[in-house]
Amino acid sequence: MPSALPSSHSSPSPGLEPDDRRRRLALGVIATGMLMIILDGSIVTVAMPSMQRDLGFTPAGLSWVVNAYLIAFGSLLLLAGRLGDLIGRSRVFVAGTALFTVASVLAGAATTPALLIAARFLQGVGGAAVSAVGLGILVTLFTRPRERARAIAVFSFTGAAGASIGQVLGGVLTEALSWHWIFLINLPIGAAVLLVARRVLPAETGTGLSGGADVLGAALVTGGLMSAIYAAVQPAEYGWVSAPTLVPAALALVLLVAFTVRQATARTPLMPLRLFRSRNVAGANLVQMLMVAALFSFQVLVALHLQNVLGYGAAATGLAMLPAALAIGAMSLGASARLIAGFGERVVLLAGILLLIGTLGLLTRVPEQARYVTDLLPVMLLAAGFGLALPALTALGMSGARDDDAGLVSGVFNTTQQIGMALGVAVLSTLAAGRTDRLLGTGHARAEALTEGYRLAFTVGTGLLVAALAVAFLVLRPTPRPPVATPADPTGTVATPATAER
């Protein structure tokens, strides 16, 4: 089904399109900046026990090392994406990278819980700016379908495998040096990204703030998303039917409804509702929300099972997760672009989700004293499904982006990712903890109770993936494939009526 939105596949004028070398460098800069952001989101998990010991965090306070970052990151993505369209996506990318790098240094130097939490909030602000516009820059740089598929595969690798790499790196740095270095390592990476970005990213001026600065809409959606994500992380500590959960949830509902009304009536809306007329764009965002919520159970709860039940150390936990990162990387960087070119995004997405259902399905039966080679290594290898699903899903999610709103569409896509993560944290961690507490209260051993709690979370995660598969099958539609190259068409990218619409 053609998209209701014009595609950005048409090439810009020859004088504006950078040469291949510069575009490859720009892709490297975007991927490296995104990898730094993604790594930081997962590198913290294996180092949190060390932070708690050194800084004197309470158990409840320790969760805010993650929550402060998540709230800032998730609530500002949409606003950052729109700012990229208005003042220039490259400018927002550079500013976000600079802020994230400075905040990383502050986090690494933190000597009190309050300083670390404040630095993590600033990291979330910078990370939102980088993430919101990175994909928008990419889809305007790479306009031909096949080269765009390869570029998206590289971009998706940073999200799919970056989390697992972060756990490896976090464990090694924490044990070899200290937890401070999981943040300080961002200084040379961020400095390198800033140095190259200013040279290779396209010089964009944007449409200007006067062309769409919906201040009221920005305030409503930022406040609504911040309240929603705050509410989503509360049940783990206070429960679902408690004032700390229900009050911000109600506030979020009011603000987001008001935002939707504002977007339907504003002359220059922050998020034009026409974006969601595209069946593939709307469906891809819903599928991503469900997938990312399930992904939490793999990335975080498997690591917790390795440490809390099997007794792995931080470094050993990271190394145990490494095969998953390698499998995802091999699939996303090596095969996904070719498979998408041959079979289309929808088919590849469905195949990837099926592999992921197998991944979490195996974990629902993980034994208390699991053996790594027979019980966990097959799970790590099946995680290659992320390397199939995410590039295909990203391509579908950006299929309706125009050049003048690619930053906004990128921000929307990343926002649904963060909402999915917040839901995964809230639902799966709460269910696992509740099951564990009930079993401990009836006299079960700690290892058995923890394992049963994790199994329940894996079961619910599997259900979320089944729902994602159903949405992908019923809602998403195949996108037209480009014509085969001919002698008169050496690039295979002639704009025919079939390829001009997505």
Automatic annotation (TrEMBL):
Keywords: Antibiotic resistance, Cell membrane, Membrane, Transmembrane, Transmembrane helix, Transport. Its main location: membrane. PROSITE patterns: MFS. It is found in: Cell membrane. It is a multi-pass membrane protein. InterPro entries: MFS, MFS_dom, MFS_trans_sf. The keyword Acetylation does not apply. Residues 1-14 have a biased composition (Low complexity). Residues 1-20, 482-502 are annotated as: Disordered. The keyword Aminoacyl-tRNA synthetase does not apply. The chain crosses the membrane at residues 25-48, 60-80, 92-115, 121-142, 154-173, 179-201, 213-233, 239-261, 282-306, 312-335, 347-364, 376-398, 419-436, 456-476. Residues 26-480 form the Major facilitator superfamily (MFS) profile domain. CDD domains: MFS_MMR_MDR_like. It comes from the Bacteria. This is MFS transporter. The lineage of its organism: Bacteria, Bacillati, Actinomycetota, Actinomycetes, Kitasatosporales.
